[in-house]
Amino acid sequence: MRSPLEQARGLLDGSVDVRSHSVRAAGWLARAELEDVLVGLIRAKGADPGRSSVRTRLCCIEVLYRDSPDVAGKAQFAWDSLSQAAHHHSYDLGPTHAEVAAAVELVADLRSRAALRD
């Protein structure tokens, strides 16, 4: 079974066939993957995130990775970008392919960092 991040990439590159809203769907999948990545980053530092909210996890990462502030910055930026892409408002333009693709790559980078620290 493909991970949410792999599914998001498939939606963006066209290898997964959907009729519409593929960019927004990719944002949802990448955001789901990011939630798991945040847990992995926290556990990699020996802490237990429990059932904390994403906002709390982002704060924990900011403290746990104070020696690598780019990790917290990328995590926050990816969360904000994907959250904005996932929400639909009739008065907003949808997210662009490039915006979601960049956020997907941030999640992939963070996932690799979490895996290296396990």
The gist of it:
The protein is mainly α and 118 residues long.
List keywords for this structure.
single chain; 118 residues; mainly alpha; 5 helices; globular
Helix content, binned percent: over 70%
Total DSSP E strands: 0
Largest sheet: none
Shape: globular
Q: Poorly predicted ranges (pLDDT <50, ≥5 residues)?
A: none
Strand-residue proportion:
under 5%
The number of distinct helices, counting runs of at least 4 residues, comes to 5
Radius of gyration: 14 Å
For the termini, the CA-CA separation is 22 Å
Q: Output the structural class.
A: mainly alpha
H/E topology pattern: HHHHH
Mean pLDDT: 87
Q: What report would you give on this structure?
A:
The protein is mostly helical and 118 residues long. 70% of the residues lie in helices and 0% in strands. It contains five helices and no strands. It has helices at 4-13, 22-44, 54-64, 69-86, 97-117. The longest helix has 23 residues, at 22-44. The radius of gyration is 14 Å and the shape is globular. The two termini are 22 Å apart.
Explain the layout of strands and helices.
Elements: H1 4-13, H2 22-44, H3 54-64, H4 69-86, H5 97-117
Helix pairs in contact: 1-2, 1-5, 2-3, 2-4, 2-5, 3-4, 4-5
